[in-house]
Amino acid sequence: xxxxxxxxxxxxxxxxxxxxxxxxxxxxxxxxxxxxxxxxxxxxxxxxxxxxxxxxxxxxxxxxxxxxxxxxxxxxxxxxxxxxxxxxxxxxxxxxxxxxxxxxxxxxxxxxxxxxxxxxxxxxxxxxxxxxxxxxxxxxxxxxxxxxxxxxxxxxxxxxxxxxxxxxxxxxxxxxxxxxxxxxxxxxxxxxxxxxxxxxxxxxxxxxxxxxxxxxxxxxxxxxxxxxxxxxxxxxxxxxxxxxxxxxxxxxxxxxxxxxxxxxxxxxxxxxxxxxxxxxxxxxxxxxxxxxxxxxxxxxxxxxxxxxxxxxxxxxxxxxxxxxxxxxxxxxxxxxxxxxxxxxxxxxxxxxxxxxxxxxxxxxxxxxxxxxxxxx
Length: 376
Known about the structure:
Mean pLDDT: 89
């Protein structure tokens, strides 16, 4: 089946609505003030986005309280969030946590209740895996579960660099015996914020010491659910990275058109024209790969893993290149704390290591496409 890389009318309508909300809420610079206050995310914006617009349940079937949409619509939302580096837990809650729950038996009350709560925006979830974890990672879970009967367990262990843990109302935790849900306010659970490069996507260390938990899925189903969540997250992260790159290019072009040297706009200098034109081509390619990944995930295409690997290996690096060009071509202004360019650079730099590095995805791509790797 030929992938559809074009945006549908419904997707464009969704984009218009999300962009309007984000524009009304404030410019990217306003994100910095909230981040400096140590807030895990913008609760007001998240409620408007998640509950008011229903985006928290885009990936959730209608029977479970969601919108019954697909990864294509979620990708559009992430593009707009990338353009504003909005500090909301869409990727961590509405994508990673939700997709992990969807991989479990949604007919069980233990799964259905938190899934509906996340879909309706009544709770925020977080998947308790280190942010750099890539799809297909086979590392043994660092949390052990001691079964106490009736689907209950006590968890012990530590998970580092968990994105979205601060401010979450439910934790989805992979353990040595399956997938468990945990209340982060329960006794035996400690969530410690860590210093993050990207202030708009805080990370934390989660420690469990005999923490009560509810079993969501056994080992085999848990492994499949976790891999599906990571694959979906990596594929849709590419759309966020696309949004970051697009804002950086648009802002740099605007600045180059207004900033004057030697009596003319700096954007008229041939050297800068070439750099911006090359960046435009990179972003056009990134858009194609991100859309292909979103479409493959939405249609459950057999080559979805390949599409995600291609998108992540390309979009992550394009976002960094666009952000670096944005900072450099703004000159001294780009190096100031007050200008939002550094927020985009930090989001892009963090994205390079999130859910697998480009090198890790290229390695996966070589394996998936049966392409021989470099001779060593």
